[in-house]
Amino acid sequence: MKIHNHPVSRCLVVAAWVSAALLAGCDSTAAPAGGGMPPGGMPPGGMPGGGMPVVEVGVVTLELQPVALVSELPGRTVSTVVAELRPQVGGIVRERLFAEGADVKAGQLLYRIDAAPYQATLDSAKAALAKARANLDTLRPKAARYGELAEIKAVSQQDNDDALASLKQAEADVASARASLDTATINLAYTRVTAPVSGRIGRSAVTVGALVTAGQSVALATIQQVDPIYVDLTQASADALRLKRAFEAGRSQAVVKLTLEDGSRYAHEGRLQFADITVNTGTGTVALRAVFPNPKGELLPGMYVRAALEERGAEAALLVPQRGVSRNAKGEPTVLVVGEGNKVAQRVIAVGRPVGDSWLVTGGLAAGERVIVEGSGKVGPDAVVKPVPVGTTVAAQANPAARPGV
Q1: Cα separation of 55 and 92, whole Å?
Q2: N or C: which end of the chain has fewer CB within 10 A?
Q3: DSSP string of 167-225?
Q4: Rounded to two decimals, what is the model's pTM?
Q5: Each residue of 272-308: pLDDT tens digit?
Q6: For the chain, what is the mean pLDDT?
Q7: Cβ proximity of 305 and 75 under 8 Å
Q8: Domains in the chain and their CATH numbers?
Q9: Are 75 and 231 in contact (CB under 8 A)?
Q10: 30 has a pLDDT exceeding 50
């Protein structure tokens, strides 16, 4: 290359030589000979020596423990006695003698229906009875005299028979008049509508001045007894069979506890009264009924409640958290167990009923085994893990700065 001796050209060439020397020096320090690890460094994504990090998982160690078995069932409260008031006679309502929603006693007067027509019918029946009795009083001695005369042949047998027939007809008239009088008396009494049972009365369907008819479809009002009160429950037929066997074996008592709609516990315990004798073919359930004291009227008919039927349970059982149980392709429950050398193994287990947030283990696991309940999605069978008791794994991974030595 021809280099001009111009001063500016000589300066440019010198600057180019200096830049090339600096670049060569940087390359020699960035890649030391032999491709070794930088002093004090660590391979990206690895541990000292080039190994992969061990995954931490949360485990629980299974222990035998006493378990109280409780069956929770949905239910509705039902009045023990329901009496619908309907008029037995027709007429105009003249008075309503109760406060809606109040407690009433059996026999208490609730409505008055216009009694004037029924009083008139009663008076007429009394008069008819008096007339029939007067006629009977006349015919009775006449028939007696005709009987005596017929014995001595003083009157014909036909006249005697006619006198006896007239007497019997008069007796029948008296009986009929007496029955009419009784009917009129009953109808007059029906104008006073009274409470057939004691309980709490609801709203009135009629007001003063309304026309009512005998046996109408609409009830005047409804009286319900709520102390005690029923709770109707439904239970799967298989569970009902198991509960029946528990009763027979003495492992359960007919004690029922209630949880109300707002989540609070009802203060009084109830007792299971009966189970239905048939299974609902549509739902496969059996109807149960429990009875509860209700002194404060806290339970109202129609409320939704949850009832707990307690059993004695098992004195030594294994529970596995539900979050540690999954299902395989066959639908079988499986868990990941940490075995010797902290190696993971998948185990098919058998579970029974749920107990809180756990499953009751009936097979496949033993006391002392460690089941993965956190981090199972990051590991699989044959993986080596670092088991950490539940309660420390999540906190440590969520806040790495909190780990000692970091």
Answers
A1: 86
A2: N
A3: HHHHHHHHHHHHHHHHHHHHHHHHTEEE-SS-EEE---S--TT-EE-TT-SS-SEEEEE
A4: 0.58
A5: 887 777 887 888 888 888 999 999 889 999 999 999 8
A6: 81
A7: yes
A8: 55-66+316-402 (2.40.420.20), 70-79+220-312 (2.40.30.170), 87-98+107-199+207-212 (1.10.287.470)
A9: yes
A10: no
